[in-house]
Inverse folding.
């Protein structure tokens, strides 16, 4: 949970007349009474919701006070990713993200006591993650971060006999409606785990997992078996059992067994031969990739000397005098709203643009207030949209990685979580205009982070791009 407070008192004295001073001293106590600190309180543990059902996200003010005249905003990883918005006594659904439209309900019964819980209907796996409950009065604002986990409990396993195979009976087990991806086990009546013959898992349009697995039962093996499907994250499981009696097992002649053995050996020989050819081809391919990587590194003798363009910086960003670093400002600056400047997102572009050759530069991130601030680094096309809401993805002309919430991820559409042992503090951005791709490398240990594949970037001028969050500072390499 992170708290932020600010105080703003603006007094405009229109004239030096006695009436103006009287009005000023009448209004001053009202502002003083309104300047009461508050805290935003949310649960200190993850909230678990079941897919397809509804959940209430609790949030309230402490001490109790009315929030009727405040702005109450529920959002995801970014301030503009609105889940539900209440302002001036009205709910503004026009700014709500499309995936939440018609699914949220603002519980206003206790708003006079500062309670602004949010109900979400028809929970989906995509709803999992962080939510921020944000309050803003005329004098202060604060927020609380909540975590929602989604569980898909799935259907009972459906078991069926799928015919004879490999001298035994093939038994199938199917189930759907699980999230996250479940664990599937076969086990005997005594509880011993049995190896499966085949297993496949797929994710449907609803985001829930379907699973299908099979096992071969022979006459002398366990004939009484069960299929168990387990949600390991939420300690929930479902199990079905089947029994195959002796008369169902096939009787095979010795000649048939010998023929099967010969066929298995022949198929194994063919498979081994094919594997060796593939191994040789893969070896050649790896050598080619390695040579390409070496050529790429040799072509980069020095880092590109990139600087930041103050004319593109959002008013809440301060660019250093040498144009090598940018940080979040506490208050907005009075800057001209030119056509090049970002006005809704705290972004800034580099002065330099590239449309040919290979180039790289390094950026270093500093988060001065906790670790909840968001940031992102990458490249953007010169004609990227600067005004209003923009998509931080290749569809919006941006190719980047960063931390727009609590997890480091690539800004694809949808976002791609990156499983790294640590969040890098210094990132090398490698732009290959010839191949139309950009690669991100941890400049600390030279480990690759993420690559947008060849052909991802169009053949037009590309510029460095930064997104700076609250309490963050980003510097370019000198």
């Amino acid at each position: 949970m992170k708290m932020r407070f600010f105080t703003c008192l603006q007094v405009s004295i229109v004239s030096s007349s006695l009436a103006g001073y009287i009005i000023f001293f009448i209004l001053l106590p009202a502002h003083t009474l309104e300047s009461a600190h508050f805290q935003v309180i949310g649960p200190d543990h993850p909230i678990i919701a079941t897919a397809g059902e509804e959940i209430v996200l609790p949030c309230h003010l402490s001490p109790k006070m009315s929030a009727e005249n405040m702005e109450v905003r529920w959002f995801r990883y970014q301030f503009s990713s609105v889940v539900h918005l209440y302002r001036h006594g009205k709910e503004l659904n026009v700014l709500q993200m499309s995936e939440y439209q018609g699914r949220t309900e603002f519980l206003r019964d206790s708003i006079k006591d500062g309670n602004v819980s949010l109900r979400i209907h028809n929970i989906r796996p995509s709803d999992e993650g962080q939510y921020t409950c944000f309050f803003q009065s005329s004098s202060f604002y604060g927020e609380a971060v909540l975590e929602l986990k989604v569980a898909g409990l799935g259907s009972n396993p459906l078991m069926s006999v799928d015919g004879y195979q490999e001298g035994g009976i093939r038994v199938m087990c199917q189930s759907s409606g699980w999230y996250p991806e479940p664990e599937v086990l076969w086990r005997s009546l005594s509880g011993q785990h049995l190896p499966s013959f085949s297993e496949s898992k797929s994710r449907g349009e609803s985001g829930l997992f379907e699973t299908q697995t099979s096992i071969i039962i022979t006459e002398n093996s366990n004939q009484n078996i069960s299929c168990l499907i387990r949600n390991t994250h939420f300690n929930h499981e479902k199990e079905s059992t089947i029994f195959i009696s002796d008369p169902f097992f096939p009787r095979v002649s010795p000649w048939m067994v010998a023929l099967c053995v010969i066929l298995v050996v022949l198929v194994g020989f063919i498979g081994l031969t094919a594997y060796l050819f593939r191994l040789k081809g893969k070896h050649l391919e790896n050598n080619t990739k390695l040579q390409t990587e070496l050529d790429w590194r040799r072509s980069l003798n020095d880092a590109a000397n990139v600087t930041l363009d103050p004319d593109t910086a959002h008013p809440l960003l301060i660019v250093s005098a040498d144009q090598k670093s940018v940080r979040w400002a506490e208050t907005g600056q009075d800057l001209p709203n030119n056509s090049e400047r970002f006005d809704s997102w705290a972004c800034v572009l580099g002065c330099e643009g590239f449309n040919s050759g290979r180039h790289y530069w390094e950026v270093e991130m500093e988060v001065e207030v906790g670790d909840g601030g968001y940031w992102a680094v990458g490249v953007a096309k010169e004609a990227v949209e600067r005004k209003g809401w923009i998509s931080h993805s290749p569809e919006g002309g941006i190719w980047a990685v960063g931390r727009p919430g609590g997890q480091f991820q690539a800004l694809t559409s949808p976002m791609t979580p990156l499983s790294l042992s640590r969040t890098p503090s210094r990132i090398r951005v490698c732009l290959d205009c010839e191949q139309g791709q950009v690669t991100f490398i941890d400049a600390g240990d030279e480990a690759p982070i993420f690559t947008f594949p060849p052909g991802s970037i169009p053949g037009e001028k590309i510029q460095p791009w930064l997104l700076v969050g609250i309490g963050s500072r980003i510097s370019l390499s000198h």
